[in-house]
Amino acid sequence: MEDPGVLETEDWPDEVAFVPYVGSRYWGGFEGRRVLLLGESHYRSEGDTDELLITRPFTCRTFEDMQTCKRKGGGKFFNELDRLLTNEADPSLTLAANAWQQIAFCNLSQRFAGTASGHRPSSDDFRNGGEILFNHILPILRPDVILVLGRTAWRRFDYGKLADHPVFLAPRANSKERRRRYLEEREVWTLGYGKGVAWMTWVYHPSWNIDRWEDRAAALRYLLDCPHQAQDA
């Protein structure tokens, strides 16, 4: 795969308020494919403003140490992404760091959502973020695979179309003790952008106890197994 070199913050268009995290070996691919994990939004901490000096490096600073064995912090979201990427329940830091070196991450919303997990982006934030992702981020990252982390982000991203491809099945989403029923069948879409095409599907947000880590990991590998050239995107 062509390696355009390290992407610096100044390489990104001004429209991109939150510059994506790009692993040091992203251009070499994850199992041969360029993988983008697409989240929903960032939450602001005390003192964070919407100034570009704050937002532009925010995603990279949040995720940069995931590709090292010297992490500053963690939490359920990050632990679940380790499992998703490595396909292991309790991966070593070395194995997880190696996986993070090979992928990219960004959020759909290009604005802070608020200060707590209950705060969500507005409809305008999702729409504007989708436009920026499609027009300014995807043509640079050129992903082959996009795994959307969260049903809300999936529903609010207005690009791509349903592929003539079997759905991904997440059989562990519903357990006997649950009263509410969750979607097990996940549509697979194709998204044409610029000179590239990506396969897409989604999982429930990793911070929620709906999908099991095995199903999230399987969703990524399902996309990786799709044909290398999505047809008629």
| Alpha-beta classification | alpha/beta
- What is the CATH architecture assignment? 3-Layer(aba) Sandwich
Question: Main sheet, how many strands, which sense, barrel?
Answer: 7 strands, mixed
> Terminal Cα separation, in Å?
21 Å
* CATH topology (fold) name: Uracil-DNA Glycosylase, subunit E
Give the overall form. globular
- Which stretches of 5+ consecutive residues score pLDDT under 50? none
Specify the CATH homologous superfamily.
Answer: Uracil-DNA glycosylase-like domain
Which whole number gives the mean pLDDT?
Answer: 91
Count of discrete structural domains: 1
Helical segment count: 7
Share of helical residues: 25-40%
- How are the strands of the biggest sheet laid out side by side? 1-3-2-4-9-8-5
How would you describe the oligomerization state of the chains in this entry? single chain
- The amount of beta strand, in percent, is 15-25%
Task: Output the CATH class name.
Answer: Alpha Beta
- Element order: H for helix, E for strand: EEHHHHEHEHEEEEEH
Q: What is the number of strand segments?
A: 9
